[in-house]
Amino acid sequence: MTKEIHTAGGPIRPEDLGRTLVHEHVFVLGEEYRNNYQTDWDEEQKVREAVRELSELKSLGIDTILDPTVLGLGRYVPRIQRIAEQIDLNIVVATGLYTFNDVPHQFHYQGPGLMFDRPELLTELFVKDITSGIADTGVRAAFLKCAIDEPGLTPGVERAMRAVAQASVATGAPITVHTHAATQTGLVAQAVLEKEGVDLSKVIVGHSGDSDDLDYLTRLAERGSLLGMDRFGLDPFLPFAKRVDVIVELVRRGFVENIVISHDASCFIDFCDPTAKREMLPNWNYRHISEDVIPALLERGLSEHDINTILVTNPRRYLAG
User: Fold this and answer.
1) 89-132 per-position pLDDT tens digit
2) Which of 25, 136, 171, 320 could form a disulfide linkage to 2, CB 3.0–4.6 angstroms apart?
3) pLDDT in tens, 203-231
4) Nearest alpha carbon to residue 229 among 185, 264, 200
């Protein structure tokens, strides 16, 4: 087993991960947009709010979050470091690229067979983040992130996914993939990653919990991947009761070791107005799993051992091997 897990606050032992939510953002915040258009941004206030919300999460029995905020979602590690210094919760950060279509323009002309023909720059950057650290922060990424949504395997998505896969093979770091459950893009991701040599047991198929198609979910799990039941609170994608039903049935079918849970929540996200978010999605917050989901799963027959497997054993195996 890996001797240490890198977090925003420094390395920890795998056994110190504790109860872990595998897909939570702290900030989803386009810095270029913020600097040009969010003139009312108050950095100190936002940091204080994040410290308060994450401290509350710790008080509810969660010890660690994995933050898959990467290039394309506004990763800014110095802010995360400031927050990590003020809380007892572990924040594990990621590297990778989030896109549904094209790679950013910085990479359009650089790469194998392109105008500036060179080895894949994306892979090099991801490996550096994992092995040396992100920028000059000293914080090392512990996992990788890519995405494949409704547009499917576009050239940009495929390039990013293969670069993530190559970095995973080179470093041993696991992968989380944002997928679109309605079009079953998790199967496409598994195929691409496997062709690049990735061990599918080191892959979380993110947003699998948006689907109640048990045949689809079973196919993913049977290939060894973890199912990210990770959007509790985003009821428009799938209501709470159905999300619970799916987990209960997957456990009944013997897949408890393939389940991880989370909210995909954040302290701040610039995808929507904060007031509208609270009104339309009242359960989309860090508290929902501790306060509502775990009690519902226990009431439906899951054991404390099942909950421990989902929240402790599976994330630890994912990160530590």
Assistant:
1) 999 999 999 999 999 999 999 999 999 999 999 999 999 999 99
2) 320
3) 999 999 999 999 999 999 999 999 999 99
4) 264
Residue 25 counted as an annotated binding residue? yes
Identify the pLDDT of residue 1. 45
Q: Is 305 annotated as a binding residue?
A: no
Residue 263 marked as a ligand binder:
no
Q: Is 264 annotated as a binding residue?
A: yes
Given pLDDT bands bounded at 50, 70 and 90, which one contains residue 3?
confident
- Where along the chain do its domains lie? 5-320
Q: Which CATH number fits domain 5-320: 3.20.20.140, 3.20.20.70, 3.30.420.340, 1.25.40.10?
A: 3.20.20.140
207 labeled binding residue = yes
SS (H, E, C) 239-275: CHHHHHHHHHHHHHCCCHHHEEECCCCCCEECCCCHH
